[in-house]
């Protein structure tokens, strides 16, 4: 079995203290991620790190000061906790990497929300991204001050404040990147909105209200669920949002998504630039999920992991491998798999391709 290598960081206190703990505990990982994204910005957007940092600051410090000042304080804490002369602007550049890259490149993911037996609700995701980030992931266990949101567990990249996870209220979130040039800097960056939902939303409806109130600067997709059994998929963009729900006819209803726009009646001016494998992965994942439903196979951690381990279309499969001879940003592989169950507030994370024999990391509150 392959042993997992990922830090779990327990962060408590004020936003600055939460950030300082994050940064001081993950110094090597933060520095490594800055090195990786320095190459990423140069290759995908022809920007130096200094240029990316300046763009991030000019575009997003004003809106974050107005809409989410506490997250800026947390980023400042990450920078000062990491040391090595890092500034708030360096950490901000990590957190807005999706907005800087836009159409140039996006990570790949296969996501699912599915109803299970006895009121269970599963959320799951394969995260496909450049292999250098495997050693830059962290688990953030955040306990904010009383009255400032819920205890939260987040799978993220060191230095980035939000990504995929769940909170003690029973709300979970998964994320798909979408390549689109749409940008509105009056909205929150994707990873900041992910964090806000995970820290403050007590239901799917509250998550939707936050997206409507604060808006999101760029284009992407969330799969959101809560412990009451509510779940949905939302493609969000500066031009409007499209919500998709499970078919009422399925015995174990589900929504699934990869990395292209697929919602009905989406805004006409919204365009994306997906890779061809996004369509084949979604088609295959739906086939596998529909087959389980036809066979009345109950959704479980095991059955969902099996679907996420599928290698049809290798190496551009659901369980992705770096293509032979790939260079630069094409060195994409499945870095990890996370499966969460909202009713019990439990989850299982594996680091690496799920088709391998991996030691699981269990989540719970």
Automatic annotation (TrEMBL):
Record has Cytoplasm as a keyword: no
Lineage: Eukaryota, Fungi, Dikarya, Ascomycota, Pezizomycotina
Keyword presence, Cell inner membrane: no
Keyword terms: Hydrolase
InterPro entries: C45_proenzyme-like (IPR047794), Ntn_hydrolases_N (IPR029055), Peptidase_C45 (IPR047801), Peptidase_C45_hydrolase (IPR005079)
Membrane-traversing stretches: none
Species for this entry: Glarea lozoyensis (strain ATCC 20868 / MF5171)
Domain named Peptidase C45 hydrolase: residues: 116-354
Name by which UniProt lists this protein: N-terminal nucleophile aminohydrolases (Ntn hydrolases)
GO molecular function: hydrolase activity
NCBIfam families associated with the record: C45_proenzyme
